[in-house]
């Protein structure tokens, strides 16, 4: 049987926020089909990007670790440029880096609002902009949104929800603008996925909250990062060559279920 992803072998991707969670699994999923990966990691991230690189190499893939703060235009440009320095091309971009903080609207000051958007929205724009200006041929981009903002509202997370909703508009606009160059832009709207971020009991649901929420999902559990990563790979591949400007909800049926 032919490998539907064989055409991705030898191509190059940048993946932000790849030290853990969805970003790590996305890097591994791409490496499995021979795509070379620049593993973007924030220096302050407690998770080890060397573990991502190790797993990429275990698949037989090739990658390099690159420190990047997506709040800095210069650092994001250098992140995308690393692909050209290492391998002379850039074909794919995965804008995954994000933070999650809990603030009621009453305690949400301008600094907290601005910091969230700098990472979760403007950081996505910087990543896609840096990639778009360096892609010399057809390519594809995937942005990671969330059901919080992308579908639902989430109390005490207005800044996060606003940023994730903005990612969808950004992705659609770039789909139109970049189509003449053969570059596709899509977004994934993950549901409840078991990651270090969602397992944070202070700013998110925490382990117990994820278990309780999973029982209410039609699929019977929360999702795994690899279940988002395989969708990332699909959206970057020629298997989705006529799909652009879309927001794909991957949530085990959560948003289709009428609440009890």
Could you please describe the fold and organization of this structure?
GO terms for molecular function: oxidoreductase activity, acting on the CH-OH group of donors, NAD or NADP as acceptor; quinone binding. Belongs to the short-chain dehydrogenases/reductases (SDR) family. With 260 residues, the protein is α/β, with parallel strands linked by helices. The chain has one domain (7-192, 226-244): Rossmann fold. It is built from 9 helices and 7 strands, in the order E-H-E-H-E-H-E-H-H-E-H-H-E-H-H-E. The protein has helices at residues 21-32, 49-58, 73-87, 110-120, 122-132, 147-150, 158-178, 206-214, 225-236; strands at 12-15, 36-41, 63-67, 92-95, 139-144, 183-190, 247-250. Strands 3-2-1-4-5-6-7 form a 7-stranded parallel β-sheet, sandwiched between helices. Strand 2, helix 2 (49-58) and strand 3 form a beta-alpha-beta unit. Helix 1 (21-32) crosses helix 9 (225-236) and helix 4 (110-120) packs parallel to helix 7.
